[in-house]
Design goal:
Strand order of the largest sheet of chain A: 2-3-1-4-5-6
Largest sheet of chain B: 7 strands, mixed
Structural class of chain A: alpha/beta
CATH superfamily of the largest domain in chain B: Thiamin diphosphate (ThDP)-binding fold, Pyr/PP domains
CATH topology of chain A: Pyruvate-ferredoxin Oxidoreductase, domain 3
CATH class of chain A: Alpha Beta
Distance between the termini of chain A: 30 Å
Number of domains of chain B: 2
CATH topology of the largest domain in chain B: Rossmann fold
Radius of gyration of chain B: 21 Å
Largest interface: B-C, 40 and 33 residues
Number of helices of chain B: 12
Radius of gyration of chain A: 15 Å
Chains: A alpha/beta, B alpha/beta, C alpha/beta
Oligomer: heterotrimer
Number of strands of chain B: 15
CATH class of the largest domain in chain B: Alpha Beta
Order of helices and strands of chain B: EHEHEHEHEHEHEHEEHEEHEEHEHEH
Strand content of chain A: 15-25%
CATH architecture of the largest domain in chain B: 3-Layer(aba) Sandwich
Distance between the termini of chain B: 48 Å
Chain lengths: 181, 367, 245
Amino acid sequence: MTDSEINIMIAGFGGQGVILAGNVLAYACVDAGKNVCAMASYGAEVRGGTAKALISISDHEIDSPVIEMPNLAIIMNAPSFIKYIDTIKPGSPVIVNSSLINMDKTTTTKHDIVGVDATNFAIKMGNIKVANIIMLGAMIKKTHILEPQSVVNGMKRAFYKGKKGLYYINESAFRAGYELI
Amino acid sequence: MAELNTDSHDKRVLMKGNEAVGEAAIKAGCLCYFAYPITPQTETPEYLARRMEEENRIFLQAESEIAAINMVFGASAAGARVMTSSSSPGISLKQEGISYIAGGELPCVIINVVRGGPGLGNIEASQADYFQSTRGGGHGDYRCIVLAPNSVQECYDMVMNAFDISDFYRVPVIIQSDGIIGQLVEPFNMHPYKPMYEKLPPKDWALTGCLGRKPNVVRTLFLNPPNGLEMHNRKLNDRYNKIKTELRWSDEFNCDKADIIVIAYGATSRIAKSAIKKHNNNGIKVGLFRPKTLWPWPDVELVEVARKNKGAKFLVIEMSTGQMIEDVQLTLMDIVPKKDILFYGMGGGWNPTPDQIYEEISRVIKK
Amino acid sequence: MNIIKSQPKSITADSTKYCPGCGHGIILRLIGEAIDELGIRERMILTAPVGCAVVIYDYIYCDVVECAHGRAPAVGTAIKRVHPDKFVLIYQGDGDLAAIGTAEIIHAANRGENMSVIFVNNATYGMTGGQMAPTTLIGQKTTTSPFGRTIKGMGKPIRVCELLATLEETKYLERTSINSVRNINKTKAAIKKVFQNQLNGIGFSMVEILSMCPVGWRVSPVEAIQFIEEQMINYFPLGVYKDTE
């Protein structure tokens, strides 16, 4: 891990599309010609339990696939916030899902907290499952780590072979998230 | 995962290590794949269940690891390119079959995505199967060729090589991956299959029915003549010695006038490299020696590194309580004092972080 | 001189290394005759088991693979998948098929692999010197059941045909014996049927043959035949257990 590396943690409960959001991000990096290395928690996780994806992004060769301390995070639910917030580098941007996390409880941390009402907005859009991509949109707007177009291209790949409608609603979700902050 | 869209800027493909293993087998012309589900390698059977069907090849989820390896034995005896994959507890079950495959001089590719042991252990990455894979593993005096990838690209490349190497020497080849490398998602260049050898020996020993020729017998029992087994073992040993001279792979990073040489393979080598670069940036001379073949062990290359870096300390890092270090000690026993060969590692499905390795290197410097 | 009957052409050995009174030699000849009559020697692949039949390649002149103990149905499965046009013969004893290889035979049968299985049941481990097999009868003395097999602690002998008949993908299952000329002829017909089924693409077919092991049983060859007639057939009734044709 070098200083130029961006190490992202995406955490939430199983079923919130944590791993999928990580994959979209990884595809976006390939589109942008960046190096990327993604690891998802595996095995003992169950639907409803805590799921976590770790993604390293760099313009240089990525050595360690093991991330010491993420310097950027998306946190989708309250238990993940409690479990992981102290593992994130102080001062780093942390995008939290304010639909499911009480923002009052986030003020004591030393992080750059950004609340996004993702789950409620996803419900308004008609599909609660796109909350993850709304969060992704907000994160890109906040950090500019990738061009929005790269993420859109990444989604084309991630939803390849899937239904086209799935791609369209996720693209809308991404744009919505991008505009939410 | 998905194929590339043609409008993409980057022609690299994104896949898990375990999936790249499957695609490499497809590209290398693997006709049969037999396996049993186990974490953390299950993506390979899942991937190949779909791809083998698409390619009109043979995929069978066996009733057990034992059946799977014996199906490998049968398919290989029948002349087919064949692969199986598993993780540590499953590989233990396969050892009987691997011994028969080695005895029968049959080629095949075996993937071991190593997890923590002993027993059911856990499902985290580990390197505790080093002894098992480099010392034969089952009963009898045999060896398997062991390749250790440390990236998704190498998973892809080494599986392709493994089929060629195995056919060339008629020795089973193990790809020793681990829970990190198998689960890692990375972009890689999915190039077409490039054969390693200009020509492979014909499989004139294969069982195809003896039409127009003398029957072929794939033997694993050597009772007659009385010295039959001895002759057989000598033949195998001659072949192993040939492999030792022809197939030692390793990588070096900053192994030039270094004060410390870290020796690590697989996922550990990459974690170590992060720590080494951090030391290098602070002006500390640390190098990395990475074996890419665990058997044959790259002894000549390691001796050369020791000669180039006189007085250096050697720090062996493994996700085990110390297995590869015995090969390091044996290789360097005449040129490096034993006290200068140090170890950092832990058993039980533990992996080091870059900071932990950084600290350990700092401790070695201060000694 | 008119030759009326001679050694099957697919059998190369002048004699076998089997003990006096052993049943393997008779079964071997019947298999040889069936191979000759169907003309399949040059397209067959035979799996040798662990046990007394391990050196079967010394007797039958065809492609052979020497399998690990009990694993022949898995090995054969792969060979048949690679070469669906070839004839795959699985030859197994009772320890091989019904003890250490129980999983392999059950799952090969359950998948309905189009293979022919010859299962030689002589109620003992012959090669290792007469130990208790999964098919050893209640009360039968062996070196590892010196006071006779008891139900308590050792269970009852496994009836393989009946067991496999419960699997819907098995196509032909028959139990025969080689204790008499009449039964030998029936066994020959069953072997041929099991072979023919594979050639016709019918599916998993097996013949279980009750066979003598006088040395393992510590009796004379004549007493061995009597043991089959008086005891084995009582527990292992002869007949066709499955014929879905």
